[in-house]
Amino acid sequence: MQNDQDFTVRPADVRDAAGIGFVHCRGWQAAYAGLLPETILQGMSPEKSAARFRQEGCRDTLVAEQSGRVVGFCGYGGWRDDPDPDEGEIIGLYVLPELQRQGIGGALMKAALAELAARGCRAVSLWVLQGNDRAARFYERQGFARTGQTKGGAAACGIPDAAGLARAGGVSPAAEHKTPAGAV
Length: 184
What we know:
184 residues
């Protein structure tokens, strides 16, 4: 999908693993500074992230490409905490920090929601690390709302809980909303 911002959103393949790994590492280090222990963030590398994406085959992943390089990605799929085939999940969405607020994240989200709708998902949810208010606000602008549901982090290791968000209108304007299991 081409857009007015001079980037393209397309399905990823294993050849994108290095670019996705770079965005993943930079995205985590920027988004989670002050939220995750520095040892975790410093232990990350684009190569380690790329190896993981290469091993997983980059399936269920979209990339935003600009001038021939990956500048963002979005992983999506079935809701991992509940095997309900009607519910999808945004697993991760990251854009290079210097290119944020230029429509790339929104375009990735729109494309991922379309993919989930095509699979028959009627609802979509995601997790955001508590304290990551910037990401929560982004998701709220995309139509998600906080559910009150939390998922345990690892407090002993300095990892905070994650908060659940669900898209109020489902994956498409006509879809009915389904609150994730256990949501308040």
